[in-house]
From TrEMBL:
Residues 474-614 form the ABC3 transporter permease C-terminal domain. It is a multi-pass membrane protein. It is found in: Cell membrane. Residues 565-579 have a biased composition (Acidic residues). The lineage of its organism: Bacteria, Bacillati, Bacillota, Clostridia, Lachnospirales. Residues 560-582 are annotated as: Disordered. Keywords: Cell membrane, Membrane, Transmembrane, Transmembrane helix. One of its GO terms (cellular component) is plasma membrane. The chain crosses the membrane at residues 471-496, 517-541, 587-607. This is ABC3 transporter permease C-terminal domain-containing protein.
Length: 627
């Protein structure tokens, strides 16, 4: 060892240069390896945390105009409506080469008769602004403008309105019929969006200024709202027909009277209805994907349960609390209508608004449940009030169930039918595959469908990961090439070029092993020191060039609003734990690189040394003299 070090000190510039260059090469190698490993770990972690979904909307083929009579304007109002030649289905999304991680699916929500449960509407003591009521006008009148009527009997709705005097107008009927004071009429009426108007109203307002801006009641259709799956409405004789009927002695024994009684019976069903939505994966629901709805207890429905159609569900916390239910309890569903046009959040708003439907068929009979099931609650979720677009939010009391668990499909008692929309149709693809999917869609997709992608910022983050990956590979390759080159070059200088010394030592009787120790010990010590210094430097430097910096630069927090205090409390690792694991990984990486350099360096030196030892001393001296 001593002789070897003395020999190296005789060429200090060469020795120092070798040490510095080897340190630099080791630093590059360690830095590249550490960054590459951390980059792969981060990519795998982000792959689990990030989800890419696409929502689908069918474009209208044209826009039609519907004329609606406006009694206040004495003219028709024009309502512009989207027209579709036909409704496309999820099969139109199955294009060649497209790979879906989940879906595509077009969701329906079902109305479940939940009389035995306390719904949000009941808990809030909500009531409908509709009435099925008998009434008489205060005087003979033509309801082509606002008139006054007295409600004599409430068949369904707010019974406090009985005997009340209200404003009334057959507002959307261009040819209303005369009403007589001495007769009793019955109708389905609603407190409308139309302001009272006309001579009677002006006189009442003059007598009582508090009536300024008062709205009027208007009659509603007695037609059913059932649709065929192609979007056409089921034929009903009451479509665009009469809405006000005179009550005679045997009126309620007629078909019309029975229809009105059935409508009165079912009008309050909306207050006892629980929406049920079927899906193939929870993240496909916009409210859950965007974090507006989130699990607070229990677990999510597993992919196996979704696939097999297991009778399990996610239930809202408010519903569970209102009914004294807990995880593992069962909820009975009695599905009696289907809606494929709207999501539950549009009809069952968390703020209390409800959209009801006429729960009768085209013959006036009450709709009966078409599927009864019992679901076990495996997860409880909550939803933020007032966050996000209500057309994509969870509905009040909404149950989330596997789509395959509903055997009836989407054609029974269809009260609303429409095209695919962002709120009802979505799919999941692999992270980072948006561009590839768009190319396929441009070639094979249907121009009538518009797809919007959401990836939580993964595309931008992926660019940072890819940049760091390329940098780490460059550093790793540069470090490996430089290290091998240095070991070969300086091994040649320190060993092959010392042929004279080797020949002299062998001539003096030193054994091959003694010659190896004499020549290699100092060089190997230098290799160890250089690789250790470079490895330590690379480990320290990699901490400042970690992939976490790319997260800060590229991470899009648009859809991070869903993280709650509960979720933060459930984080599996703290920053300190992650930092500690990162340091351990860097130390192990540096150790492996150092050991690798030492092994490679030792191997090269031994090969060079063995090559010299195989030659006779006189041959080595002769070669030295020729050089």
């Amino acid at each position: 060892m001593r002789n070897s070090l003395k020999q190296m000190l005789r060429t200090p510039m060469r020795t120092a240069l070798f040490f510095l260059l080897l340190t630099a090469a080791s630093l590059l190698l360690t830095l590249g390896a550490a960054l590459f490993i951390r980059n792969r770990q981060a990519a795998a972690q982000y792959e689990e945390q990030f989800i890419t979904i696409g929502t689908v909307r069918q474009k209208a083929d044209s826009f039609g105009q519907t004329l609606v009579w406006d009694a206040a304007q004495k003219d028709y109002s024009i309502i512009r409506t989207a027209q579709y030649d036909s409704y496309l289905t999820v099969e139109d999304l199955l294009i060649p080469g497209a790979e879906y991680a989940a879906g595509p699916e077009q969701r329906a929500y079902y109305g479940s008769w939940a009389q035995e449960y306390v719904t949000a509407s009941q808990a809030e003591n909500a009531f409908s602004n509709e009435l099925v009521a008998e009434f008489s006008p205060l005087e003979d009148c033509m309801p082509d403008e606002t008139v006054q009527i007295q409600i004599t009997k409430v068949l369904s709705g707010n019974t406090a309105m009985e005997n009340a005097v209200v404003f009334f107008c057959d507002h959307e009927n261009p040819e209303p019929e005369m009403l007589y004071q001495d007769k009793t009429y019955v109708a389905r009426i609603s407190y409308s969006v139309y302001q009272a108007h006309g001579e009677t109203y002006e006189e009442a307002k003059a007598a009582s200024p508090m009536l300024e801006g008062r709205l009027e009641y208007v009659p509603l259709s007695l037609s059913s709202q059932l649709y065929e799956s192609d979007g056409s409405q089921v034929a009903d004789e009451f479509q665009n027909g009469r809405t006000i009927f005179e009550v005679t002695e045997s009126f309620y024994e007629t078909d019309t009277g029975k229809r009105i009684l059935n409508m009165a019976e079912t009008m309050g069903y909306v207050l006892y209805t629980q929406p049920v939505t079927g899906t193939n994966k929870t993240c496909l629901l916009p409210a859950f994907y965007q974090g507006e709805s989130y699990l607070v207890e229990g677990r999510d429905i597993t992919q196996e349960e979704y696939r097999e159609g297991s009778k399990v569900c996610l239930a809202p916390r408010s519903f569970m609390e209102n009914n004294g239910l807990s995880l593992g309890d069962t909820i009975t569903t009695r599905l009696f209508y289907t809606n494929t046009r709207r999501n539950a959040g549009s009809d069952f708003m968390l703020e209390g608004g409800r959209s009801g439907y006429t729960i009768i068929d085209e013959k006036g009979n009450v709709l009966e449940p078409f599927e009864v099931s019992e679901y076990t609650v495996v997860g409880i979720y909550d939803t933020r009030n007032g966050v996000g677009n209500y057309t994509q939010r969870s509905g009040a009391d909404e149950l989330i169930v596997p789509m395959n668990s509903i055997q009836a499909g989407t054609e029974h008692n269809l009260v609303s039918c429409g095209p695919m929309t962002d709120a009802t149709t979505s799919f999941q693809i692999e992270n980072g595959s948006i561009e590839e999917f768009q190319k396929l869609w441009a070639e094979f997709g249907d121009d009538h469908l518009e797809i919007t992608f959401y990836d939580m910022g993964y595309t931008q983050l992926q660019a940072g990961i890819e940049n760091m990956r390329n940098l780490s590979l460059f550093l790793l390759a540069a470090g490996m090439i430089l290290t091998v080159f240095l070991l070969l070059f300086f091994g040649h200088l320190f060993i092959t070029k010392q042929a004279g010394r080797t020949a002299t030592e062998r001539s003096l009787g030193m054994s091959p092993s003694q010659c190896r120790r004499s020549l290699l010990s100092g060089l190997l010590l230098l290799i160890c020191l250089g690789s250790l210094c470079g490895g330590a430097g690379g480990a320290l430097l990699s901490g400042n060039l970690s992939v976490s910096q790319t997260e800060a630069e590229y991470y899009d927090s648009t859809y991070s609003v869903g993280k709650t205090e509960d979720e933060e409390a459930d984080e599996p690792q703290t920053e300190e734990e992650e930092s500690g694991q990162s340091v351990d990984a860097e130390i192990w990486t540096a150790a492996v690189c150092v050991i690798g350099i030492v092994i490679v360096g030792t191997s090269i030196c031994l090969l060079e040394m063995n090559r010299s030892l195989k030659r006779e001393p006189m041959e080595l001296l002769g070669k030295k003299q020729r050089e």
